[in-house]
Amino acid sequence: MTIGSFVFMLHSHLPYYRKAGMWPFGEENLYECMGETYVPLLNAISELYEEGIKAKLTVGITPILAEQLNDEHLQNGFIDYLDSRITAVSKDLERYPDPKVEHSQHKKYLAEYYYKWFTHIKDCFVNKYNKNLVEAFKKYQDLGCIEITTSGATHGFSPLLATDSNLNAQFKVGSDTTKRLFGKKAKGCWLPECAYRQGYEYTGKDGQKHWRPAVEVTLQNNDIQYFFTESHVIEGGNSIGDRRVIGPYGNIEYIPLPDREATGYDTYSAYWLPDAQVAVMGRNDRAGFQVWSAADGYPGDGVYREFHKKDDKSGMHYWRITSEKTDLGDKMLYDPVLAQNQIGSNSDHYTTLIYHLLNDYKNANGKEGLVMVSFDTELFGHWWFEGVEFIKQVVRKFNNYLPQVERLTAGEYLEKHPPVEAIQIPESSWGAGGHFYVWNNHLTEWMWPIIHGCEKRINAIVDRYQEIPEDKLLHRALNQMARENLLLQSSDWPFLITTWQAKDYATDRFREHVERFETICDMIESGNIDEAKLVELESIDNCFPVIDYRVYSTIEEGVIPQQEKKLAPLYQ
Description:
Layout: E1 4-12, H1 27-50, E2 57-61, H2 63-69, H3 72-95, H4 104-128, H5 133-142, E3 146-151, H6 164-182, E4 189-190, E5 200-203, E6 209-212, H7 215-221, E7 226-229, H8 231-235, E8 271-272, E9 279-282, H9 285-292, H10 336-365, E10 369-376, H11 387-401, E11 405-407, H12 410-416, H13 447-463, H14 472-488, H15 492-499, H16 503-526, H17 531-540
Parallel strand pairs: 1-2, 1-10, 1-11, 2-3, 3-4, 7-9
Antiparallel strand pairs: 5-6, 8-9
Helix pairs in contact: 1-3, 1-4, 1-5, 1-11, 2-6, 3-4, 6-7, 10-11, 13-14, 13-16, 14-16, 14-17, 15-16
């Protein structure tokens, strides 16, 4: 007998780094995540499968990340990156042990550990996965080990896009890209930044009242059946954005919302949305917080590897967290054996926690419930070095010792347990305070009129070219215009500006894509296309190779008038 269902969702996303710098921001960020997260995750899924265990993970891979993993330039760049790491740690093997360096014998041991680790990652990437992680994820999708979900093509912030055609283009291109690369249309998606907007009434240029459909209508139009959200969106109360979390989120100013009344709903079920047959699942707060929290979650344990301290010569991570209050200069050396033992203890605790959450819910309500947890994939391995091993042990222990917990992918859960209620959720995001502030604030408000102006300009140009032109150069320019428009809409640019992690880099990247977009628009409108310039842009921003610019057509677009009502957003 089962006591309930457990859905483990991983959201994988990085902005478009191809040929846009190397370090500290650029391609090397992708290579680090490939080496520390994506290859180890595939290895874990593979090892479990060889044991006869299907991981049953829901793995979201944003289309723009998938395009990069599928790119030959970046595949070869990853090998160069691994070679550089192997070379660097080899020099540490030569300089240790050094009687002048404290604990140099242990550093020698760690250098040997990392030499084997990087060599193994390279061997797996080249020989096991043939340099193509997209094909590897597809393989385990087809074997029933994972379910792959899609997202907006470039992770555009859905609620703040001004036109339905641009919102649709994000999910149309995104969904089509996922199907092209993984061979199967995704059932579910990750709303970029978990950002949701209700439908609302507005006055059009014709002076008439119109209804702008909710985000889920766009999802349904692209055959997307479900998405995920935060616990406070379902349950009400205050958001949890004031908690310190693992990952690149520590510099976000927290501006809380007024307390929202409890809704009476919980995250132990999935729900329909009111305006389309699309389901939403909320993250279980307790189960998510146990992993996500920097202060109280597993990743903050002192034996785990310290992310922020590196050797000044090789760049190797030779230190452990030690304690939250320990200065970087006083960190103790890392011990992989201690860390491995702690993973065993944490995975025991986590599987027991999930079991009791589901068992207590069933005893209290007389029915089986759902615990869904969702995390950035890069938390595991990249930020929390031991995290992928944690996932593997959790899956194995559920399979071997707790068969009462039904492990399902998100799509499998909805097929077996379709929602029985519909709820209206408020405007919301995962960001601090639960609203849109992280992406639209005093540091980023200048960006949105530019984005909206580009939306209107691409609509106007595309509407003049309803038929694909016979002029192949013009056709290429129209498609490249569409790519640049998608890339400038990436939610990563305002996020990186708000957090001050890469403020100048993100500002430059945004302005570059806007400039490229406007350059192409000028060429199209003037009838004078500079082929050399177009080739240059195509060679840099080569994502979405089969894009059809007509996805931005508004000729047949019209807002469908609905009932005369206005749903006031709960989060302004």
